[in-house]
Amino acid sequence: METRSNFQELPSEPHGIFWEENFITAEHEQHLISIFTNELEWPDRPGRVSLHYGYSFDYKTFGIDPEIPYKEFPSWLKPLIPTTEDRAPDQVCLQYYPPGAGIPPHVDAHKPYDQLYALSLGAPAMMVFRQGDRRIEVDLSPRSMMKMSGDSRLHWTHGIRKRKNDTLPDGTVRPRGKRWSITYRWLRDGECECGNLELCDTAQRRNGIEKEKRSLKALENAALKESVV
Ligand SMILES: O=C(O)CCC(=O)C(=O)O
Ligand SMILES: [Fe+2]
């Protein structure tokens, strides 16, 4: 696979956001938008809608849906696959955000996936990264490719507010328009070891198991005492 990398880490927190401006040309973007609007069949419902390629995302388990067969990448998608990882992504999701739509603050599940990339197309939107009371806004400019890794991926949530306008740092009020994003996910090798009990599904599961073990131990001890008495 040919590699090309113009990714630069953003100087601000959260750490681990790598950015490539103009991942594709404006003409290429227009061509894609015309495919998205004229050739693809979208779920018929208001708000944000998604189409999946490769393995499908399971919104119940936040992992790969074992029931849905692997879907080959369509020809328009192939040139948009990041070449900076050692293999192609396992799961790709195309999302359409009608003007004003958003995505609630979340952290993409740690258990199934490792790094995450997102290509923005169409109108810009502000993404908000949160950690505790801290909020950092990152402007998702069209044609930019973002890689979320490290802290930004594991220890901060991200989301896009559901609203008709974004207010830029200089006070400009920018109306939201139609936006598409393509997110790319790679299955994780082994387990996530970040240990973040608030945001990591693996750490939470382990903690649950430990708690269960602890209560089993307590029961065993109680039983032992009873049998001694
Ligand atoms: O639309 C985007 O740029 C990001 C979407 C997102 O956070 C997700 O699909 O997990
Ligand atoms: Fe996400």
From TrEMBL:
Species annotation: Penicillium bovifimosum
Gene Ontology MF terms: demethylase activity; oxidoreductase activity
InterPro entries tied to this protein: AlkB-like, AlkB-like_sf, ALKBH4, Oxoglu/Fe-dep_dioxygenase_dom
Biological process according to GO: demethylation
Source lineage: Eukaryota, Fungi, Dikarya, Ascomycota, Pezizomycotina
Every Fe2OG dioxygenase domain range: 88-188
Domain of life according to the entry: Eukaryota
Protein name (record): Fe2OG dioxygenase domain-containing protein
SUPFAM superfamilies with a match to the protein in the record: Clavaminate synthase-like
